[in-house]
């Protein structure tokens, strides 16, 4: 048994060296490891692909693999990319980044749709760069801006219900952060966490005891906006959303980033690493460049809200 | 379609398979020995991962972390066992209830966060996928193989002791076991505890290997566990018939499962179809024993008819 | 040795399937008694044996084995007093376990089972081999074979051996030859008698065969509608024929003996 193992290992090592040598042509191979099929993550992957294809044309081969929502699949896919000796791995969402990090210390990794790299990678003394083979873009929404928006639209509200999914790595972080800003503005915040589709409706129902609801950038919530809308609309409650998808589905207004732009920015970083030899360990994490205030006209009318001029309507 | 790339991916698939094989051995104890379909494992595997992640990031020794994970997993099994035996809830439902409760408990273990990173650059971990192609003792395949061997040896010893025999009898024929003075309720609880302890232990290893714990990390774990048990039986059942041999089969079954997954990825099939492919692979292995039996019956009938 | 004091049991009370299985059943066995039990369908024969074994709690009355009141004890705790053989050959043994595993389980009936001590010692193995030889079925050479591979008769013989491996205070035989062909049934009955005689066991045997009921044991009881209605002692039994038994039954119960499987010959 041991001998066979040793033999297999040697064989694999030898082949790894061979394939390394074979990768010396001008075509770049990039693996995209995405956690789950999802509007925002899909947009980020699309942006990433578009950026690289625009810059490199047929000199780039991008292999997109999706873990279909099972985080353990991330490890299998990461193993596939490392075995194929990719020139770069793009990890879309937190477990994807963590799996890629565990799988390789050598291949450059760029993350996207990650809210907070220090938490996702468990780094101390965060300086904006990781110091290891990882960089990327953050989808951290402008939480202070979102709190300010809530204040702008609902100055008379007293309580804010914060609705999020307890299974989402980044939601708790966002909720904790925005609570600070909202409390400063004089609101009382209450957390309403749901686990999955089964209890969304009842959790949102109880959240409706608050004056206004807030939903952060939350992949699971984004999947159940229909359910949430069916509760909040009859109750006459307004939802301020952390991102556009949720806002379209069940919200009234949002201060949002574009995941496509974020993915595009990640693609530009990838170009720097691949072609210009930038050191990924020293590349600063990039944040979304610009935010837009958006609102849903039909819901604003139903709630008899007056939306300021600088908001653009979501079609 | 570079075969070298596939071979290069095999060590990773093998070590992932060995870690899941540990989990599948836990499933084997309930599914095959106790004859109980226990769905607690989807929760208890994540519990093991959560405990290990929290302890390792708090600076504890990783060995201590996996031992504590094992003990906490046993507690999860105890709860399912008590639901089933003292409250009279059917085993399958008892497991689902515990699994449900464990979701909240796992979140509490991780301080309300759904995901806890275990940074391999920062902490000493027992295994990491990073070293899987290394030709050294830090290769996770070596340690996981040793752990599997030790686990199988311990289980072989335990299931041949007086109490181990009683546990096997409980699963084989409950009425007979009671007639021999065995408290089958206690035996079931102990079997569930042992099983979930092993599953949590596997979760603790997986967390270190993949570099994070996640409340959803073991969603559908029971499917992989059962697949490993059945694949092992179908492929190696004829060769390895002893008790220890059967446990080896289970571990090999898990390795095959992950090799197949790796091949599917390497073939470049659309990963959106991954779950369907998993279902098909498991269904085929489930069907093989059935088809074999049918073929044998047909052969038998034909022979008889020819006489 | 056994006192069944006016026990009663109703299954599924208050439902449409409510069934009065035992009502005021009363029976007392002296040490060394070998009692055969006959009766019609649903007379409560098996129910009474199961009540003694503790398969279910009883509604009324008490059960005392060798001076110890076991009425409140769960089934697994009563096992230390009882050897049991069931009608279905599948019930008495663990099919997926080996012959020697099954015997080792039976040898430890009523004892604490250690998670550290080996389940079978080599000394025991020799003893099992000797015991199996007595059966004359060749099982002593197949001690590692799974019990599921044995025939019904072989399994019943093994179960009987297992029930007496650790001397029970009471042996409960619940139509243990009903599923066997006549030749095998006779063999198993002979073995039963032999084991009971050698170890001076106290035994209760339910049977549907009137001839067997007369031929074996030192007492016959008849049950009807959950009660013991006839109790025949050794002297009377010796001169009894099947027709006498039938007459006795009709006379006492005021009805015909109805048992689909009853063998009168």
Query: How are strands sequenced across the largest beta sheet of chain A?
Result: 7-6-8-9-10-12-13
- Biggest chain contact: A-B, 60 and 59 residues
Radius of gyration of chain C: 19 Å
The CATH class of chain C is: Alpha Beta
Q: What is the rounded distance between the termini of chain C?
A: 32 Å
Task: Write structural notes for this entry.
Chain A has 13 helices and 13 strands. Chain A is α/β, with parallel strands linked by helices. Chain A folds into 2 domains: 141 residues, Rossmann fold; 136 residues, Rossmann fold (3-Layer(aba) Sandwich). The mean pLDDT of chain A is 90. In chain B, 75% of the residues lie in helices and 2% in strands. Chain B has a two-stranded antiparallel ribbon. The model of chain B has no long low-confidence stretch (mean pLDDT 93). By secondary structure, chain B is mostly helical. Chain B starts with a helix and ends with a helix. The model of chain C has no long low-confidence stretch (mean pLDDT 91). The longest helix of chain C is centred in the last third of the chain and has 18 residues. Chain C is an alpha/beta fold. Chains in contact: A-B, B-C. Chains B and C meet through helix 6 and helix 7 of B and helix 2 and helix 3 of C.
Summarize the structure in short.
The complex is a heterotrimer of chains A (315), B (307) and C (265). With 307 residues, chain B is mostly helical.
List the helices and strands and how they pair.
The complex is a heterotrimer of chains A (315), B (307) and C (265).
Chain A: H1 2-22, E1 28-34, H2 39-56, E2 60-66, H3 71-83, E3 88-92, H4 94-103, E4 109-114, H5 117-120, E5 134-138, H6 143-153, E6 159-165, H7 171-184, E7 188-194, H8 197-207, E8 212-215, H9 219-223, H10 225-235, E9 238-241, H11 244-250, E10 253-256, H12 259-274, E11 286-287, E12 292-295, H13 297-302, E13 312-313
Parallel strand pairs in A: 1-2, 1-3, 3-4, 4-5, 5-11, 6-7, 6-8, 8-9, 9-10, 12-13
Antiparallel strand pairs in A: 10-12
Chain B: H1 3-33, H2 41-57, H3 62-85, H4 91-109, E1 115-117, H5 140-160, H6 162-172, H7 174-179, H8 184-210, E2 212-214, H9 221-236, H10 243-266, H11 274-306
Helix pairs in contact in B: 1-5, 1-8, 1-9, 1-10, 2-3, 2-4, 2-8, 3-4, 3-8, 5-6, 5-10, 6-8, 9-10, 9-11, 10-11
Chain C: E1 2-11, E2 19-29, E3 34-39, H1 45-53, E4 60-65, E5 68-69, H2 75-78, E6 82-85, H3 99-107, H4 122-135, H5 152-165, E7 170-174, H6 182-199, E8 203-206, H7 210-215, E9 219-224, E10 227-232, H8 234-238, H9 242-253
Parallel strand pairs in C: 3-8, 3-9, 6-7, 7-8
Antiparallel strand pairs in C: 1-2, 1-4, 4-5, 9-10
């Amino acid at each position: 048994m041991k001998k066979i193992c040793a033999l297999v290992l040697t064989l694999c090592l030898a082949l790894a060296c061979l394939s390394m040598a074979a990768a010396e042509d001008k075509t770049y191979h990039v693996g995209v490891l995405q956690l789950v099929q999802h509007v925002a993550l899909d947009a980020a992957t699309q942006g990433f692909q578009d950026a690289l294809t625009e810059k490199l044309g047929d000199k780039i081969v991008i292999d997109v693999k999706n873990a279909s929502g099972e985080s353990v699949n991330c490890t299998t896919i990461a193993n596939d990319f490392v075995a194929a000796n990719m020139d770069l791995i793009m990890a879309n969402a937190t477990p994807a980044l963590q799996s890629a990090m565990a799988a390789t210390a050598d291949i450059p990794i760029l993350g996207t749709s990650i809210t907070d790299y220090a938490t996702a990678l468990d780094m101390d003394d965060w300086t904006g760069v990781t110091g290891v083979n990882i960089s990327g873009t953050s989808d951290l929404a402008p939480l202070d801006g979102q709190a300010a928006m809530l204040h702008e639209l609902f100055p008379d509200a007293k309580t804010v219900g914060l609705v999020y999914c307890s299974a989402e790595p980044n939601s708790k972080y966002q909720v904790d952060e925005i609570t600070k800003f909202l409390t400063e503005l004089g609101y009382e915040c209450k957390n309403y966490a749901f686990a999955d589709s089964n209890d969304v409706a009842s959790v949102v129902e109880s959240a409706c005891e608050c004056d206004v609801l807030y939903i952060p950038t939350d992949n699971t919530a984004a999947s159940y906006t229909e359910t949430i809308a069916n509760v909040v609309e009859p109750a006459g409650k307004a939802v301020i959303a952390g991102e556009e998808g949720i806002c379209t589905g069940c919200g009234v207004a949002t201060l949002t980033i574009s995941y496509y732009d974020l993915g595009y920015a990640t693609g530009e970083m990838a170009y720097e690493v691949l072609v210009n030899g930038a050191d990924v360990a020293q590349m600063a994490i990039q944040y979304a460049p610009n935010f837009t205030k958006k609102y849903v006209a039909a819901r604003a009318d139903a709630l008899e809200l007056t939306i300021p001029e600088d908001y653009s309507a979501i079609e | 379609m570079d075969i070298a790339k596939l071979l290069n991916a095999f060590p990773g698939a093998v070590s992932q398979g060995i870690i899941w094989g540990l989990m599948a051995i836990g499933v084997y104890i309930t599914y095959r020995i106790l004859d109980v379909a226990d769905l607690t494992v989807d929760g208890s595997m994540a519990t093991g991962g959560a405990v290990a992640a929290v302890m390792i990031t708090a600076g504890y020794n990783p060995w201590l972390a996996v031992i504590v994970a094992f003990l906490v997993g046993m507690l999860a099994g105890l709860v399912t066992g008590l639901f089933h035996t003292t409250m009279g809830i059917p085993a399958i439902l008892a497991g689902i209830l515990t699994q449900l409760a464990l979701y909240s408990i796992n979140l509490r273990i991780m301080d309300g966060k759904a995901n806890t990173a275990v940074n391999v650059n920062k902490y000493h971990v027992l295994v990491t996928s990073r070293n899987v192609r290394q030709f050294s003792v830090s290769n996770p395949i070596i340690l996981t193989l040793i752990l599997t061997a030790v686990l199988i040896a311990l289980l072989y010893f335990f299931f041949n002791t007086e109490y181990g025999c009683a546990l096997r009898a409980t699963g084989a024929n409950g009425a007979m076991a009671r007639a021999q003075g065995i408290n089958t309720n206690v035996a079931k609880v102990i079997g569930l505890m042992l099983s979930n302890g092993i599953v949590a232990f596997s979760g603790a290893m997986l967390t270190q290997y993949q570099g994070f714990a996640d409340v959803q990390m073991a969603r559908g774990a029971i499917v992989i566990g059962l697949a490993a048990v059945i694949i092992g039986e179908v492929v190696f059942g004829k060769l390895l018939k002893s008790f220890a041999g059967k446990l080896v089969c289970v571990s090999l079954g898990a390795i095959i499962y992950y090799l197949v997954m790796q091949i599917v990825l390497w073939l470049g099939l659309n990963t959106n179809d991954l779950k369907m492919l998993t279902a098909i692979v498991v269904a085929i292995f489930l069907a093989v024993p059935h088809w074999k039996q049918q073929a044998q019956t047909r052969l038998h009938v034909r022979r008889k008819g020819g006489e | 040795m056994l006192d069944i004091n006016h026990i009663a049991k109703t299954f599924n009370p208050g439902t449409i399937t409510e069934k009065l299985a035992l009502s005021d059943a009363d029976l007392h066995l002296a040490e060394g008694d070998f009692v055969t039990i006959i009766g019609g369908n649903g007379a409560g024969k098996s129910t009474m044996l199961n009540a003694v074994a503790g398969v279910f709690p009883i509604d009324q009355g008490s059960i005392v084995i060798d001076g110890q009141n076991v009425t409140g004890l769960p089934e697994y705790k009563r096992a230390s007093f009882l050897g049991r053989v069931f009608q279905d050959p599948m019930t008495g043994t663990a099919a997926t376990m080996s012959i020697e595993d099954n015997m080792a389980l039976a040898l430890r009936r009523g004892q604490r089972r250690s998670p550290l001590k080996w389940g079978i010692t080599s000394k025991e193995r020799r003893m099992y081999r000797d015991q199996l030889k007595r059966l004359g079925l060749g099982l002593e050479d197949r001690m590692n074979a799974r019990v599921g591979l044995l025939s019904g008769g072989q399994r019943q013989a093994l179960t009987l051996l297992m029930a007496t491996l650790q001397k029970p205070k009471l042996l409960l035989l619940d139509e243990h030859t009903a599923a066997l062909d006549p030749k095998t049934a006779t063999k198993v009955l002979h073995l039963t008698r032999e084991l009971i005689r050698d170890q001076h066991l106290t035994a209760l045997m339910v049977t549907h065969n009137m001839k067997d009921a007369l031929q074996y044991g030192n007492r016959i009881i008849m049950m009807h509608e959950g009660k013991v209605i006839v109790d025949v002692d050794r002297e009377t039994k010796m001169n009894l024929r099947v027709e006498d038994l039938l007459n006795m039954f009709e006379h006492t119960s005021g009805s015909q003996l109805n048992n689909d499987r009853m063998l009168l010959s």
